Amino acid sequence: MAVVNLRQAGRLLGFKTAEPLRRMLKRGVLDDYLRPGGDGRCVFLETDPPGLPSLRQQVQANTGFNSASPLWRRELLSDEALDTAMAPINDWIEGREDWSVRANEFLDPAAWTGPPWTPDQWVTLRNVIELAVES
Q: Cα–Cα distance between 119 and 104 in angstroms, integer?
């Protein structure tokens, strides 16, 4: 929960100037984020007010998407958070039988020598791999 001036908020959100924030203030979009300052001239914004979306989320909701803008970059996950998020996918991958094991069940090893293979053998190999992946 930080309170920053308009210029700092603009830099924090990735803007080159504070002008986009000034326009949002004029429209009343950021009224809930305003905090009183020492004198009447300085504008302060709270970055994470309780009970409201963060300042970043509020600004994102009121600006167009631009993939090159730092405003839209996501924070990187820590290793622990990434492991937790990937756990269900990794469990699923580890639980699946490897397609190469299934492919070997379809093939007669005596019929297969090392490459080069004939065109018919290549077609058979492709079909066996497709069957193994699907099953």
A: 19
Spatial strand order of the sheet with 34-35 comes to 3-5, 44-46, 34-35
Beta strands in 9-124, from DSSP E residues, in sequence order: 34-35, 44-46
Q: pLDDT by residue (tens digit) across 76-130? A: 667 787 788 888 888 877 777 677 777 777 787 777 777 777 888 888 888 888 8
Which tokens hold the place of 129? Answer: 């791999």
Sign of the alpha-carbon torsion through 48, 53, 55, 56: positive
Q: How many residues does the chain have?
A: 135
3-state secondary structure 103-116: HHHHCCHHHCCCCC
Query: What residue spans define the domains of the chain?
Result: 3-72, 79-134
